[in-house]
């Protein structure tokens, strides 16, 4: 590996070459903490010649363009700071100084054509139009998350420059004020352009890929998604210089993740994707595992599978955002329940199930029964009993997911699912632990933390009571049988507990209001509200009836 290190200042760096961000690089990702730290070191520190570390690039010696392997975040931030300084100078009436900075950001190449010194693709054309360009943008762009980060860095720098001027020109007027402003902005410019860096230049892209895997960018460690992208784009080389399928597929994958309303993390998705297919590994060693398995022969298929699975993954966490066939509604309901329980452990197995059902490798009945078993386990074990799961549960889910994915024999897949369901049943909590957790569940106007779980419990119980399975629970509300705010008296001690709650329609809820129990019950009967045995048998309503009904609901749901 031929490595040539040289020390340069940013002024010389920007005048020497044009800098491209290669295909395997991640987007701009510095947050406010990274930006503020860099500002304090590079601009506010008051010292020209501050050393900002090394940057790694590759390209033939003598070429106009170099590709940035390590240093993208710093180069982009410096460009943003210079652009913000240019615009501050324009506002201050220092047009010549502003034009001078623009000549650093943008200059002529060897063919005498104007080009920006920093050339990015993931933020194109936002960075170019809204930051690097001198003057107002000519096109309207809805910013991506990366571009919002760029805009945030620009706004941060603008506010800092304005604060700098306010302090510098305090109590000054006229020519003295203008001279003070000019002096301080020139000093800020000189500190930025005087930043020192060591440039490590490599001859070729292959060496750059190797260096990329071993380096962390300043301010933020590389995540598994960055390393995996690097590996796949290294192995899947484009056949045509004008079209890069690997890069386009990766962008499509990241766009799908970014579009999720569930705030899915890309590295977590790739980890769950792996666990649903291959041997167990924690996320910190995910890249090492993938690197050992992926080759030039299978890299494209691996990337295709990642892209294909991301919709199924999103369905797990946002089931209401996707269409479902009528017969698959039970799957949607189970997935919605898992989001209520806030569990992530079963994700590899759930992904494997949805994929197998999509690919017609298992029947709807098999998918429904297995997903219902997962739902039931986490309802009882996690949501109600409040028990923590051991590492063995994670291993169990990952092993079941891998077996389902890799088993070609339909009968063996069916047997594997039956055995998996049996394992879940064997792990369910004792009824006493379930009932104890059940007693702690409550909901009122002032106790809303568990509202989603309370609705789930009432809906699950109501399905047992009702003969009409087609009821739209989205149009039902939670009614307190014993009122929260009874007229002329204090509420019952257990007014917020499950035994005092029932699902009713909005219309019926309006009729019941704070009426005494005998009147409420007559209205319920008149409206033909299906009632469970405890509620149906009650002539009066107090804490004893609430406790009795709470225990009855717990017993019914445990036995179901």
Account of the protein in words:
It is a single chain. The strands form 3 sheets. The chain has a 6-stranded mixed β-sheet with strand order 1-8-3-4-2-7, with helices on both faces. It has a two-stranded antiparallel ribbon with strand order 5-6. A two-stranded antiparallel sheet has the order 9-10. It starts with a strand and ends with a helix. By secondary structure, it is of the alpha/beta class. It has helices at residues 10-16, 32-42, 72-91, 95-105, 126-132, 145-168, 174-193, 205-214, 224-235, 245-258, 266-275, 286-293, 299-317, 329-341, 347-358, 364-384, 391-406, 410-427, 431-439, 451-465, 506-512, 517-526, 533-537, 543-559; strands spanning 3-9, 18-20, 51-58, 65-70, 106-108, 114-116, 118-119, 196-202, 476-480, 501-505.
Which tags fit this structure?
560 residues; alpha/beta; two-stranded antiparallel ribbon
Strand content: 5-15%
| Class inferred from helices and paired strands | alpha/beta
Number of helices: 24
Tell me the number of strands.
10
Q: How far apart lie the N and C ends?
A: 66 Å
Give the spatial strand order of the biggest sheet: 1-8-3-4-2-7
**Estimated helix fraction:** 55-70%
Uncertain stretches:
none
Characterize the largest beta sheet: strand count, sense, and whether it forms a barrel. Answer: 6 strands, mixed
The average pLDDT value, as a whole number, equals 90
If you compute it from the alpha carbons, what radius of gyration comes out, rounded to the nearest whole angstrom? 31 Å
Give the overall form: globular
């Amino acid at each position: 590996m031929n490595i040539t290190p040289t020390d340069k200042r940013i002024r010389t760096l920007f005048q020497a070459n044009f800098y491209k961000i290669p295909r395997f690089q991640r987007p701009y990702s510095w947050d406010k903490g990274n930006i503020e730290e860099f500002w304090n070191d590079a601009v506010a520190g008051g010292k020209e010649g501050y050393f900002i570390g090394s940057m790694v690039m590759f390209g033939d010696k003598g070429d106009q363009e170099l590709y940035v392997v390590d240093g993208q975040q710093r180069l982009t931030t410096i460009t943003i700071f210079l652009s913000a300084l240019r615009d501050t100078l324009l506002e201050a009436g220092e047009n010549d100084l502003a034009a001078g900075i623009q000549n650093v950001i943008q200059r002529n190449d060897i063919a005498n054509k104007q080009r920006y010194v920093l050339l990015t693709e993931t933020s194109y054309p936002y960075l170019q139009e809204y930051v690097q360009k001198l003057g107002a943008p000519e096109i309207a762009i809805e910013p991506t998350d990366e571009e919002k980060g760029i805009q945030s860095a620009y706004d941060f720098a603008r506010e800092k420059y304005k604060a700098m001027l306010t302090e510098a020109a305090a109590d000054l007027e006229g020519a003295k004020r203008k001279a003070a402003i000019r002096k301080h902005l020139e000093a800020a410019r000189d500190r930025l352009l005087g930043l020192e860096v060591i440039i490590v230049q490599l001859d070729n892209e292959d060496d750059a890929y190797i260096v990329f895997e071993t380096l962390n960018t300043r301010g933020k460690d590389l995540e598994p998604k960055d390393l995996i992208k690097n590996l796949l784009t290294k192995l899947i080389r484009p056949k045509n210089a004008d079209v890069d399928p690997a890069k386009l597929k990766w962008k499509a994958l990241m766009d799908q993740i970014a579009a999720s309303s569930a705030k899915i993390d890309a590295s977590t998705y790739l980890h769950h994707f792996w666990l649903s297919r291959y041997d167990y590994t924690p996320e910190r060693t995910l890249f090492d595992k993938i690197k050992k398995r992926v080759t030039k022969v299978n890299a494209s298929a691996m990337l295709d599978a990642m892209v294909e699975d991301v919709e199924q993954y999103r369905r797990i966490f946002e089931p209401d955002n996707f269409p479902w066939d009528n017969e698959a509604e039970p799957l949607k309901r189970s997935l919605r329940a898992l989001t209520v329980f806030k569990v992530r452990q079963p994700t590899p197995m759930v992904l494997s199930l949805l994929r197998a059902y999509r690919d017609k490798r298992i029947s709807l009945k098999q998918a429904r029964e297995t997903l219902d078993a997962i739902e039931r386990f986490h309802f009882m074990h996690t949501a109600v009993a409040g028990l923590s799961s051991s590492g063995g549960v994670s291993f169990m889910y990952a092993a079941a997911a891998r077996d389902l994915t890799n088993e070609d024999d339909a009968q063996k897949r069916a047997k594997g699912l039956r055995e998996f369901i049996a394992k879940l049943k064997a792990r369910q909590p004792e009824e006493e632990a379930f009932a104890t957790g059940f007693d702690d569940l409550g909901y009122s106007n002032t106790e809303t933390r568990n509202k989603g779980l309370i609705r789930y419990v009432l809906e699950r119980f109501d399905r047992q009571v009702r003969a009409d399975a087609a009821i739209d629970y989205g149009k039902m509300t939670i009614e307190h049988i014993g009122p929260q705010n009874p007229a002329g008296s204090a509420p019952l001690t257990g007014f917020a507990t499950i035994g005092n709650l029932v699902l009713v329609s909005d219309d019926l809820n309006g009729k019941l209001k704070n009426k005494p129990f005998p009147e409420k019950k007559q209205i319920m009967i008149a409206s033909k509200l299906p009632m469970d045995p405890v509620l149906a048998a009650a002539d009066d309503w107090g804490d004893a009836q609430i406790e009795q009904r709470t225990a009855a609901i717990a017993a019914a749901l445990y036995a179901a």
